Amino acid sequence: MSASAFVDISWQGRPVRIEHQWLNADHTCAPLVVFLHEGLGSVAMWKDFPQQLCNTLKVRGLVYSRPGYGQSTPRAADE
After folding, report:
1. I need a surface site. Which of 12, 36, 51, 63 has the fewest CB within 10 A?
2. Taking 90 as the threshold, does the pLDDT of residue 77 lie above it?
3. CA distance 40 to 47
4. What's the sign of the alpha-carbon dihedral 27, 24, 11, 14?
């Protein structure tokens, strides 16, 4: 499994850091699957499922932790 990385963005006027993982990133010609989540709010909670799926389907993947989940920036108190 890939290690988590971070990207810094500006969201509604404040800095936000988003935890993410690229899976099979070297397969540049392969389709990309973005793993959206509702109950699974973070990269860690997905465990190895995204990597197994990407390997089986021979695709790239992007898994991320939305703000307030995982190692992404916590949500603001007023949200």
Report:
1. 12
2. no
3. 10
4. negative
Rg (alpha carbons) of the chain, rounded to whole number: 13
Amino acid sitting at position 53: L
- Between CA 69 and CA 11 the distance in angstroms is 16
User: What is the C-alpha to C-alpha distance for residues 54 and 33, in angstroms, rounded to an integer?
Assistant: 8
H-run or E-run covering 32: strand 32-35
DSSP state of 59: -
Write the DSSP symbol of residue 25.
T
